[in-house]
Amino acid sequence: MGSGETELYFVFMNHDPVYHRLRANRTKKGQLELDLYLSRKHEQLLSAILQPGTYRKTVSLVIIDAFGVEISEEQANLLRSAEGVRTVEKNLEVV
């Protein structure tokens, strides 16, 4: 696992009531809690599915509960079947 060329993929998560509750809190503290919650949630998913050192998370997207990660196509396929993942899409650059 983890062999081959890595590319940027976006992982979109399924409905999460905790995410929606935290997102509704528009205070600074609420936004910080949401950022921390998503960062931990995304890191836990990656560390449970992929081998350490074989991926690089680039960003957690707060507005849609998704994240960017540099991984191989094989790793993307593993994430597609993970519980809680709605879809995994390769980043397509428009030139």
Automatic annotation (TrEMBL):
Highest taxon listed in the record's lineage: Eukaryota
Name of the protein in its database record: Inhibitor I9 domain-containing protein
